[in-house]
């Protein structure tokens, strides 16, 4: 168990340092937005660019992995939506943001640093494919549902289109696309340019975790536990279980199974807490209180659930 804690410990200690230094006033809460902008606009795009551009395109795009992660996320979305609407009797907008918390993993800020520690060769590739699924399918679909909930006269296809237009200007998506272009073309970047990109890429892991910790300071919890609990269960248990179920069904439909490292990557990334921008999206629709509380509790709880999952997966990691 100590070797599992050696993997998860540094991740959550870094998050804790971000939390404590912000809570003690060494950094202001507003500073986290600045650091977050740096990570979002420069460090993560640079890291994704490196992960994609330095490999052959056949090594980057694993169709089976993309299909598994897409179907697992859609299954989670469907089950979460049915629970919210049929059993919890929530309105459409509240259901949308409960489901967003269940299906959108923090692949870049938390998932990638953990994968780097246990399976560095596939970490960037798995992250790139997760970004494809989340940024081009899951998030636009959820934002379209949110728009549809607020403006029922608006056609859902138009809402999807508007969400997609916003996402293609996302720096992370741009880094992914540019890295793919370089990989396809076989270009070699000038050494000076490559070193600059490497410098920004290397800053992504520690700073992204630090930002998560600082962002958690001051998030509300009081009176929200009954709303937060289903999101926690959906994100930390249902999402990885749905991924496992989809992988188990691969051979039934005649698809080749994923290799061991990609299976582990899919399960771990599905088991991550929700993305940091969950609150940002929720603020646009007045759902930030429940979303912020869910992010705080899910991130804290994930230390135990991820440690347990790594322990279960330990025989496959050796």
Residue share in β-strands: under 5%
Low-confidence segments: none
Number of helices: 14
Largest sheet, described in full?
Answer: none
CATH architecture: Up-down Bundle
Say what oligomer this is.
single chain
Number of E-type strands: 0
Which class of secondary structure composition applies to the elements?
mainly alpha
Helical residues, percent: over 70%
Order of helices and strands: HHHHHHHHHHHHHH
Mean pLDDT: 83
End-to-end separation: 14 Å
* CATH topology (fold) name: Na+/H+ antiporter like fold
CATH top level? Mainly Alpha
Radius of gyration: 19 Å
Shape estimate: globular
The figure for the number of domains is 1
How are the elements arranged and paired?
Layout (H helix, E strand, L loop, with lengths): L1 H22 L5 H25 L3 H4 L2 H25 L4 H12 L3 H44 L5 H12 L3 H15 L5 H12 L1 H12 L9 H24 L11 H11 L7 H6 L4 H30 L1
Overview of this protein structure:
The protein is mostly helical and 318 residues long. It has a single domain, classed as Na+/H+ antiporter like fold (Up-down Bundle). It is 80% helix and 0% strand. The longest helix has 44 residues. The radius of gyration is 19 Å and the shape is globular.
In brief, what are we looking at here?
The chain has 318 residues and is an all-alpha fold. The chain has 14 helices and no strands.
Keywords:
80% helix; mainly alpha; single chain; 318 residues; Na+/H+ antiporter like fold
């Amino acid at each position: 168990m100590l070797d599992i804690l050696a993997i998860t410990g540094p991740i959550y200690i870094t998050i804790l340092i971000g939390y404590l230094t912000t809570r003690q006033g060494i950094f202001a809460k507003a500073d986290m937005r600045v650091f977050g902008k740096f990570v979002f606009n420069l460090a993560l795009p640079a890291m994704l660019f490196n992960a994609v551009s330095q490999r052959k395109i056949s090594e980057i795009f694993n169709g089976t992995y993309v299909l598994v992660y897409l179907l697992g996320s859609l299954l989670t979305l469907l089950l979460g939506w049915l629970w919210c609407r049929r059993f919890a009797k929530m309105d459409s907008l509240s259901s949308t943001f409960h489901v967003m918390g269940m299906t959108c993993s923090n692949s870049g800020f938390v998932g990638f640093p953990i994968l780097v520690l246990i399976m560095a060769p596939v970490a960037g590739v798995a992250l790139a494919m997760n970004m494809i699924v989340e940024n081009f399918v899951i998030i636009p679909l959820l934002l379209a549902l949110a728009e549809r909930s607020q403006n029922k006269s608006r056609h859902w296809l138009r809402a999807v289109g508007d969400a997609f237009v916003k996402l293609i200007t996302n720096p992370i998506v741009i880094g992914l696309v540019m890295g793919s272009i370089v990989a396809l073309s076989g270009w070699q970047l000038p050494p000076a340019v490559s070193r600059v990109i490497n410098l920004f890429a290397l800053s992504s892991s520690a700073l992204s975790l630090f930002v998560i910790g600082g962002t958690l300071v001051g998030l509300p919890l009081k009176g929200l536990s009954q709303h937060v609990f289903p999101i926690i269960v959906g994100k930390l248990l249902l999402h990885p279980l749905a991924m496992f179920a989809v992988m188990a069904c691969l051979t039934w439909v005649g698809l080749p199974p994923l290799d061991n490292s990609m299976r582990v990557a899919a399960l771990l990334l599905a088991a991550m807490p929700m993305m940091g921008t969950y609150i940002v999206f929720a603020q646009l629709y007045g759902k930030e209180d429940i979303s912020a509380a869910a992010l705080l509790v899910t991130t804290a709880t994930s230390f135990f659930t991820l440690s347990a999952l790594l322990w279960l997966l330990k025989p496959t990691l050796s």
